[in-house]
Amino acid sequence: MAEKLKHNSMKNPNLNGDRVPPILLSQQEIKIASEQYKTPLYLYNLNKIGRQYAKLRDYLPPNFNILYTLKANSNLTICHKLAQLGCGADISSTGELNAALKTGFSAPEIVFTGPGKTNSELAAAIEAGIGIIVLESVNEARRLNNLAQKYGKKQDVLIRINPLYRTSQSCEIREKASSCGTNDTNGGEPRAKIQMIASSSSKFGVDEDRAIEEIAAIDSLENLNLKGIHIFTESNVLDYNQLLASWTNTISIANRINDQGYHISVLDFGGGIGIPYNSVDPEFDMESFGKELQIIFENNPYPYHCIVEIGRYMVGEAGCYMTEVVDIKESLGQKFIILDGGVHQILRLSMKPASKYMEVLGRNGNYTQKLTLGGKLPTPLDIMVEDVMVPEDIEIGDRLVIYNCGAYGFNHSLTNFALHNYPAEVAYCDGEMELIREPGNIEDFFLNQKLPFAKNLEKELLTSI
User: Fold this and answer.
1) CA gyration radius for the chain?
2) pTM of the entire structure?
């Protein structure tokens, strides 16, 4: 049964800075959830998701269609919320396709992206009647064309392009320094000139210098209807000028394709709009971003219908992760807190500093003690964050809440490592909390497994005693 709460979003001065926790719930509300549903636990605020969607809708130009990218968080309640708000869906597997259809997304408003699509996945997409499939190569285009011909359909498609130039902070470039997805250098100066640099090879899409050749090949396939291009290079950007530079480059590429006689009318920019993972970085300036985009389109020689695939910005700040201190220890002068959670439930290998955006429930003292947060897995990989500040009086049994875990949390982790139970997931909406995913149990790990060679297992066990 839902628990009715008196909502009181209060400011906590101990949150490693001044900003109010973005989840918009008070410590008391979060504490109630951790007591009722236990830890480890994910808690999401559906009202916050609604606010984020409204900002996108209000500030992006009217020629934009907003898709929710399910890889950020595929919980059915969250998907249903976004479908109700009017989002389309960006999916990259048959599992995500089924989740999208199950939760109310309209098939014509679904876009299938990502490399490595199998024939069975492509066939499922055609059968479902989804709107657009994004092609990664001519070989994929030919396979899709054969399937569309078999089903007697003409499928709308985009071609993904690996651009010759991208910003110096783009995802694949930053990933080489193990920082993709963070925003430690994204703040930048307002109106700063964004440097565009030559890109490297990529597993995504076709290279820009071969795009016309590839487009011509796709355009010749009778059961495909090439509508436009998809370019997605940025991740978790806070400086809107950076994303504007990237998207302007995409528009220029599309214009050159149109100039060469290939009529394309759809641009899929992917995502990239970021959220701060600390209390000091500025928020993405959505209003200025939208105004400058509008000016670009008003002065562009070709009209375009545009698509954005948004995950992190929509749900990231709406979620938090709660975990309990089970041990406190020291090794060679370094203090460790061992938690009942870990990277099997929240994996942030390339953005560990994000987990510093946290607080200890019920501890209002000064955050002056520096230590490392480690999980319960039997591997050195299971370090959630280093050099995080916590109160001097932290104790075993205290609960930690880590903010901005609504995206790339539960379904982005090493869930089966060491066979620990899955965390529960809970949603807050209009003063009520509801359990939206039961906590896991031991039997979950053995679903679909068989023991075909264990006919004499009982006998072998008896003789070994």
Assistant:
1) 24
2) 0.90
